[in-house]
Design a protein that fits this description.
By secondary structure, the chain is mainly alpha-helical. It contains 7 helices and 2 strands; from the N terminus they run ββααααααα. The chain has a two-stranded antiparallel ribbon.
Length: 151
């Protein structure tokens, strides 16, 4: 087990490093999202999941993005942080650019509704992350995205 000191105020987060547990947890996330979206292509589900998590990360402030990442299984956390530049903000923080990032991840497949994907992933987060953390993430996200979160 690794101990990460995320803040100078000595808040500690614990992360399991067992690769088999992380792989199984990631597969559970993909299976759950596939069920929510009624998709059978697990690769497409995985791409949509990662794109939505990364788009959310880029729309949150630094601290909230870190706390959200800490809630994810280790394998998903690695993909979540892939390509992240904490000092750089998303170019446009509007609903269309958020949904476009998701749609781009599935090669703009016309059968994919990026809003449905976003709602499904955010709903999945709400089921797997503490209500307090979800409320903080929702509050930290742009207002134009609030209706994508579950009530």
């Amino acid at each position: 087990m690794i101990v990460l000191n995320v803040e100078s105020t000595e808040t500690l987060m614990y992360a399991s490093c067992d690769p088999s547990n992380s792989l199984q947890a990631t597969q559970d996330w993909v299976s759950d999202l596939a069920w929510r979206l009624h998709w059978h292509d697990r690769e497409r589900v995985f791409r949509a999941l990662i794109a939505t998590l990364q788009a959310l990360r880029d729309y949150l402030d630094h601290d909230e993005a870190v706390y959200m990442g800490a809630q994810l299984p280790a394998l998903l956390r690695g993909f979540y942080y892939e390509g992240w530049h904490p000092g750089r903000c998303a170019k446009a923080k509007n609903r269309n650019s958020f949904l476009d990032r998701i749609h781009d991840s599935v090669h703009r497949d016309p059968a994919v509704n990026p809003e449905e994907v976003a709602r499904s992933v955010l709903g999945q987060l709400a089921n797997r992350v503490s209500p307090a953390e979800i409320e903080e993430a929702k509050a930290a996200s742009p207002t134009v995205l609030h209706d994508l979160w579950p009530p």
